């Protein structure tokens, strides 16, 4: 779901740039649903049925062959990447919105790396309101490993003890049954939220517990106090980079309770680091990339 949201944002950026610059173009979004790899749009020769001026590929599964075929079918190929997943063709433009990511592509000539190239919905901005003493848990659209329930089971007794309420966002494709058990009185579940609702929850929650993908950047843009768990390998670099800058706490299921207590202490002892206004930095150089691509 994070990759889908990211590609939708890039489509919006492309169409907006084209309109502002009087460029007549068509921009289509093609989605692989993940059910059967033989039906994926990038599988083997299927890509040859597509052609045009520009292909932007956002995938954590497409093989090297997909990018080689794209270069034959399109004038330019750009890749939205997270961790230098494979040795992409050097002719491709690399876009990586994670901090400290330029170092991953030392031998590539066309690299746009850093949070300035991270597309963020403008709804995600800091709030001037005093944040409520509530925890927000959100792990994306599917959360196949059920971090939502596992984190809730660990933190609910602590939240109850420290008088926090808990808000849980359940994605549209969440495959499990979430149960608040004995903590229903302090828990509110939100399902199938739109971007406005998610942004509002980020802006109003004192602590956000989330995965390390797109939602982490959205939470950071709102200046949330964040505990992040890398729930997939492609999230590891971003989570580690933000943690080194002391903008988030990087955690896991073993350390989550201790990390929560530590963050709670920092917040109420007022020793937590002040944020740069990341909402002003996210995506501010995307126009620079679009000038090169379009």
Classified by CATH, the class of the largest domain is Alpha Beta
Helix-strand makeup class:
alpha/beta
Number of helices: 8
CATH architecture of the largest domain: 3-Layer(aba) Sandwich
Beginning-to-end CA distance, first to last residue: 26 Å
Major sheet strand order: 7-6-5-8-9-10
Largest β sheet strand count, sense and barrel closure = 6 strands, parallel
Mean pLDDT: 90
Number of domains: 2
- The name of the CATH topology of the largest domain is Rossmann fold
Strand content: 15-25%
For the CA atoms, what is the radius of gyration?
20 Å
CATH superfamily of the largest domain: Glycogen Phosphorylase B
- What share of residues is helical? 25-40%
**Overall 3D form:** elongated
3D architecture notes:
- The protein has helices at 2-20, 64-73, 147-162, 195-204, 214-221, 236-244, 256-268, 286-293; strands at 52-58, 74-80, 93-96, 111-113, 132-138, 165-170, 187-191, 205-211, 225-229, 249-251.
- It has 2 domains: 2-121 and 283-293; 132-276, Rossmann fold, CATH 3.40.50.2000.
- The two termini are 26 Å apart.
- The strands form 2 sheets. Strands 7-6-5-8-9-10 form a 6-stranded parallel sheet, with helices on both faces. Strands 1-2-3-4 form a 4-stranded parallel sheet.
- The protein is α/β, with parallel strands linked by helices.
- Helix 2 links the parallel strand 1 (52-58) and strand 2.
- Helix 3 (147-162) packs across helix 7.
- It has 8 helices and 10 strands.
- The mean pLDDT is 90.
């Amino acid at each position: 779901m994070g990759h889908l949201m990211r590609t939708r944002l890039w489509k919006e950026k492309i169409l907006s740039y084209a309109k502002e610059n009087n460029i007549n173009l068509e921009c289509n979004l093609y989605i692989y649903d993940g059910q059967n790899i033989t039906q994926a749009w990038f599988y083997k020769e299927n890509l040859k049925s597509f052609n045009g001026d520009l292909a932007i590929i956002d995938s954590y599964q497409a093989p090297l062959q997909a990018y080689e075929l794209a270069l034959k079918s399109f004038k330019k190929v750009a890749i939205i990447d997270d961790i230098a997943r494979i040795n992409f063709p050097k002719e491709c433009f690399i876009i990586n919105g994670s901090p400290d990511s330029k170092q991953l592509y030392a031998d590539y000539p066309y690299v746009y790396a850093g949070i300035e190239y991270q597309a963020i919905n403008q709804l995600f901005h800091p709030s001037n309101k005093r944040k409520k003493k509530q925890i927000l848990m959100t792990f994306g659209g599917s959360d196949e490993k059920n971090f939502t329930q596992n984190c809730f089971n660990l933190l609910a007794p602590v939240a109850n003890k420290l008088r926090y309420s808990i808000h849980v966002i359940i994605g549209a494709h969440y495959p499990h049954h979430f149960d608040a058990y004995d903590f229903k009185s302090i828990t509110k579940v939100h399902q199938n939220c739109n971007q406005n609702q998610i942004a509002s929850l980020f802006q109003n929650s004192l602590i956000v517990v989330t995965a390390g993908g797109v939602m982490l950047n959205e939470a950071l843009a709102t200046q949330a106090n964040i505990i992040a768990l890398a729930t997939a390998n492609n999230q590891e670099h971003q989570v580690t980079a933000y943690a080194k800058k002391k903008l988030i706490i990087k955690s896991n299921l073993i350390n989550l309770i201790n990390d929560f207590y530590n963050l709670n202490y920092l917040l109420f002892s007022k020793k937590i680091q002040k944020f740069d206004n990341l909402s002003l930095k996210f995506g501010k150089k995307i126009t620079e990339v679009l000038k090169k691509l379009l």
